[in-house]
Amino acid sequence: MLSRLSLNQETVRQWSLPELADGCARAGVRGVGLWRAPVRQYGVAAAARLVRDAGLEVTSLCRGGFFTAEDPGERAAALEDNRAAIEEAATLGTATLVLVSGGLPSGSRDLRGARERIAEALAELAPYAAERGVRLAIEPLHPMFAADRCVVSTLAQALDLAERFAAERVGVVVDTYHLWWDDTAGAGIDRAGGARIAAFQLADWVTPLPEGALLGRGQLGDGAVDLRWFRERVDGAGYRGPIEVEIFSPALWARDGAEVLSEIVERFTMHVG
Amino acid sequence: MLSRLSLNQETVRQWSLPELADGCARAGVRGVGLWRAPVRQYGVAAAARLVRDAGLEVTSLCRGGFFTAEDPGERAAALEDNRAAIEEAATLGTATLVLVSGGLPSGSRDLRGARERIAEALAELAPYAAERGVRLAIEPLHPMFAADRCVVSTLAQALDLAERFAAERVGVVVDTYHLWWDDTAGAGIDRAGGARIAAFQLADWVTPLPEGALLGRGQLGDGAVDLRWFRERVDGAGYRGPIEVEIFSPALWARDGAEVLSEIVERFTMHVG
């Protein structure tokens, strides 16, 4: 099970990219999930070399998306930016580009229209991505982000979008932090099946939420999520891919990166494996 | 439509109970939703007289619930407290006791078990409430409250619980703040029908969320919720009852109560009626 563990870069944002590569190699962790901003800052080709030389697999790139703008200029810019993200994913050697689809445009209350614009963007981008060996991965975000980040709030909604396309072109992300509360998540995982699940990510749910809600994720085992239940359900659906730990937490960022990673490995073994 | 407007007391918590009764009468608002703590502080019988003398209808009492404890002593205490809430509702002359069902017990990750304990508590309390002319009203709370306040997160889940009982004994609350993001909410409203909808409450969704997420609700029209869509759907399902405005917002509490109420009437006319 530990061979499937991947560390998402944002979990240890106190680490530079070389520190990340080195730290993972030392800890025996074989996968990393990367983010565009630090990768671009380091240089995409250089980052690809760095992780390859460290023997690491890039399990995903975060993130494309933000497809919901109504303004034609903004929409064109978003598509252009997503094409760049697809190129970056290809250069990094990962088949998975995670999409945060976008919230409601300012002043809009039209969730259905926003979701339809996501489908249009997927139709535009999926062939471009496929030509480069990259799959688009729709991530449902917790409903508390529906207004400002992502109008795709449930796995069922993500699948309604993804299933308009071939499974090898558009998949979904199962992230425990976003889905844990939903009693239909299990049915969604079964519906997705191993072929449609492009990524499986872990974080725990802890309270109280901080202002803005974004940086309130918990270390594995510290919160309300039955992580093992999710892992078994996803495996039961036929998923055999990496299991990525993605925790946005100032409390973890304030600590020594190697210590955080060692704790993650321990918690992963205890609560997931 | 304005004749259906009800003001939930927490929306103008800067007002004492006599100020609330007087302010609503002056503004031509004929319904109020009350909360147990201020009512008990004033005296339940005295509060009932006060609002009756002001010509107001009590459209709901908030709140019973918190049914999810595993400890037998805690469970007995919760049931006892809910019987008291039922008596208070009866004294106030309202047929609707709103339930916030409770989150996960400390250290638990068993959402299904917690939901089952809610069903057990409903079975225990519904006959007691019915004898006193009070209906239990299950309120699904936004999924961001699933861990610490209410494991009932969707209208579908609330209906799964409520439908175990007769519609005149156990109903559901449709609150736009909690349900707006959910593309299955409309189907849930249809499924509930007028007979099962015990209360219809309004608040708008605004961002960013404040720390703890509880006090971040928006004035009608300030946010992402299509309030008129909800009102039309609820009416279309056969609901003819009061429409209660329940906004927890320090920004509204800092203002003059009469000014806030006048703004609510204006916004209600513009965005709901």
Descriptive account of the structure:
2 copies of one chain form a homodimer. By secondary structure, chain A is α/β, with parallel strands linked by helices. The first copy, chain A, has a single domain (2-271), classed as TIM Barrel. In chain A, 45% of the residues lie in helices and 17% in strands. Chain A is built from 11 helices and 10 strands. The longest helix of chain A is centred in the first third of the chain and has 21 residues, at 72-92. Chain A binds chain B through residues 104, 108-112, 115, 142-144, 146-148, 151, 153-154, 157, 180-183, 205-213, 223-226, 229, and chain B through 104, 108-112, 115, 142-144, 146-148, 151, 153-154, 157, 180-183, 205-213, 223-226, 229.
Brief overview:
By secondary structure, the first copy, chain A, is α/β, with parallel strands linked by helices. In chain A, 45% of the residues lie in helices and 17% in strands. In chain A, β5, α6 and β6 form a beta-alpha-beta unit.
Primary descriptors:
homodimer, alpha/beta, 17% strand, 273 residues, 10 strands, TIM Barrel, 11 helices, 45% helix, two-stranded antiparallel sheet
Give, in spatial order, the strands making up the sheet with the most strands of chain A. 1-2-3-4-5-6-7-10
| Content-based structural category of chain A | alpha/beta
Q: What is the chains' assembly state?
A: homodimer
Run of helices and strands of chain A: EHEHHEHEHEHEHHEEEHEHH
> Can you say what the CATH homologous superfamily of chain A is?
Divalent-metal-dependent TIM barrel enzymes
CATH hierarchy: architecture of chain A? Alpha-Beta Barrel
**What is the CATH topology classification name of chain A?**
TIM Barrel
| Backbone shape of chain A | globular
Rg of chain A (C-alpha, Å): 17 Å
Low-confidence stretches of chain A: none
Q: Which CATH class of chain A applies here?
A: Alpha Beta
Distance between the termini of chain A: 6 Å
Task: Count helical runs of chain A.
Answer: 11
How many strand elements of chain A? 10
Pair with the biggest interface: A-B, 35 and 35 residues
